[in-house]
Amino acid sequence: MGKVYVFDHPLIQHKLTYIRDKSTGTKEFRELVDEVATLMAFEITRDLPLKEIEVETPVQMATSKVLAGKKLGIVPILRAGIGMVDGILKLIPAAKVGHIGLYRDPETLQPVEYYLKLPSDVQEREFIVVDPMLATGGSAIEAVNSLKKRGATKIRFMCIIAAPEGVEAFQSVHPDVDLYIAALDEKLNEHGYIVPGLGDAGDRLFGTK
Ligand code: URA
């Protein structure tokens, strides 16, 4: 079974409170999501492999560490996932960014892929799929299905708030994909919103409604 990592860093938790607050306006909401994404990227990259190189300091030669060149890909689920991309790229600017668009079929209620653009070397990359909310899990499951279908083997999923129902559904389909979240909330309500959640992440990020 995949693991669920809850990033309980005080800065993440502090910022998340203001993200949840309904009186936080679009500009501040977007900035906070960006900052939380950066902090989560810091945590999720903890296990990246390092290698040693020689570097000349003003004093003498030294052996020092750099990232071992693991190729990373970030895949936001449209549209709310876009709000997390820049924050992650601040820390890992060499990552390539794919995009996946999904809509919910009104009859089957299942997510259907309408857009997909991934880096060409899918098999060689480790992917972080991002979406601020893991609600029913439907979009996250389908996004990871799409990546696996194209040959991705190393995938993580990162979101800001998850519902227990979404975590369970996701893990039952993708037990090989670890989840990285800032908060595990109480439940989903009858409209599919996470409770207490933050409302509609896409609308709050982009000022629509
Ligand atoms: N998507 C959102 O943006 N918010 C929720 O609460 C659930 C799904």
Automatic annotation (TrEMBL):
Q: Which SUPFAM superfamilies match?
A: PRTase-like
The cofactor note from the UniProt entry for this protein is: Binds 1 Mg(2+) ion per subunit. The magnesium is bound as Mg-PRPP.
Its domain of life reads Bacteria
Q: HAMAP family, alphabetically? A: Upp_B (MF_01218_B)
Known cofactor(s) = Mg(2+)
Lineage at the top is: Bacteria, Bacillati, Bacillota, Bacilli, Bacillales
For this protein, the Enzyme Commission number is 2.4.2.9
Tell me the residue numbers annotated for binding 5-phospho-alpha-D-ribose 1-diphosphate: 79, 104, 131-139, 200
Q: Which Gene3D superfamilies match?
A: 3.40.50.2020
Where the record annotates domain Phosphoribosyltransferase, the positions are 6-208
Q: Which residues bind uracil?
A: 194, 199-201
Instruction: Spell out the activity regulation.
Output: Allosterically activated by GTP.
Q: Output the InterPro entries linked to this UniProt entry.
A: PRTase-like, PRTase_dom, Upp_B, UPRT, UPRTase/APRTase
Q: What keywords are annotated for this sequence in UniProt?
A: Allosteric enzyme, Glycosyltransferase, GTP-binding, Magnesium, Nucleotide-binding, Transferase
- MF GO annotations: uracil phosphoribosyltransferase activity
Its recorded name reads Uracil phosphoribosyltransferase
- What is known about what this protein does? Catalyzes the conversion of uracil and 5-phospho-alpha-D-ribose 1-diphosphate (PRPP) to UMP and diphosphate.
Q: In which pathway does it act?
A: Pyrimidine metabolism; UMP biosynthesis via salvage pathway; UMP from uracil: step 1/1
- Stated family: Belongs to the UPRTase family.
> Reaction catalysed?
UMP + diphosphate = 5-phospho-alpha-D-ribose 1-diphosphate + uracil
